[in-house]
Every structure is written in structure tokens, then in C-alpha cells.
Prior knowledge:
Elements: E1 2-12, E2 16-26, E3 29-34, H1 41-48, E4 56-61, E5 64-65, H2 71-80, E6 82-85, H3 97-108, H4 114-119, H5 135-148, E7 153-157, H6 165-181, E8 185-189, H7 193-196, E9 201-206, E10 209-212
Parallel strand pairs: 3-8, 3-9, 6-7, 7-8
Antiparallel strand pairs: 1-2, 1-4, 4-5, 9-10
Helix pairs in contact: 3-5
Amino acid sequence: MKLLEASGIAHHFDYPLFSGVDLSIDSHESVAIIGVSGSGKSTLLHILSTLLTPDSGEVTLMGESMEGLSNRGLVELRRKQLGIIFQSHYLFKGFTGAENLEVASILSNEPVEPELLRALKIEHVVNQKVTELSGGQQQRLSVARVLTKKPRLIYADEPTGNLDLETACEVMDLFDSYIAKHDAGLLLVTHELQLADRCQRVYKLEEHQLVRVK
């Protein structure tokens, strides 16, 4: 099943970012986007995850076009089908790690799985306040929060930026097993070529175009 299909996507701010972008992701598939800073990788991810409307082009998710979809429909889609891991985490700072996970559990009506916490090596710190966690622990907590929702499509924007390479590879292992088990897909934006190469397809944003390099 095609989880994502985008065609003719173009966008600019004060300068052109990209145009004519076509991309699709099937279930059980992982796709990475690489490129230099400022090339528009995160902006493209925001467009493909419904957080930003493109200048032109169409995004279809789970077989439904995003053009004209109501605000309520977008909220339901994001809550039940999409999982977005941001560079900045966006955790609730006044909460413990467990309370952050509980919010995701309540909104999605899915349980917090102890095996997930063990896989991310945060089971021993989950009851601490977010502000007491290291950057790497917060990053792994944000991954756990998204996977708790059981999304069909994961958008990950530099999800391993605060992690050492060994831990980053363990997170990628977790993504691989998740998309296989849950009939899901992954869109990864990263500067780490070694991690990007773990994905089945790799694209590079350069000279305003999205070019397949693997």
C-alpha cells in the first residue's frame, strides 16, 4: 500500500528551495533524504507531513489527498496515522518522561510498551523530569513517544543528532523492526550518510531538485 505519494511539490521562502519534487513511500519501506544545511530537507518533511502547505503540488497520504482536507480531518490523520520526530523534541518540560509517554498513550489509545523503553535504554530514567535527562535521553524519549502511537508513517528529522553512532544504529534497528511489524513506512532526514544508507532508498536535495542517489 502506498502510504505517501507526492507529485510536483515546489516551495520557496525569500529564495527558491525546490520544485518538481516527486516521492512515494510504500508500507515496509524506508526512505532517506540528505543534503547540505539550508537545502530544504526539513521544509520538505514538513510539507510531506501536512505541517506546511506547498506553493504547488499535491500530497496524498493513505490514499487520501491532503488538498481540501478539513482541519478536523488533518488532526485525526496526524493523531492516528502519522508520527513526527522533531529535531527539537518538543517534550513537555514540566512532566516526567513517563508522563510524556502517557499523553501519547491517551491520545492514541495505545499502551506504553516496556519492551520499547528497554530497546531505547530509557527504562531506568523514565520517571525523571525531562529537564533532568541528557540530550540523548530526551531524543530517545521523543522516539518512544512517537512509536507509542503506533503510526503508519514515521517522519524523523535528524532523530539521532544527539546520539553516538552505536546508539544511533540501535535506533535505526528499532525503526526497521517497527516498520516490518506494523506495516509502516519511514521518511528520514539526516546529515549522517551511514544512517541514510540503512534506508532502502536515498535521495539528495541539491540545486532545487530531489535526486535519487541509491
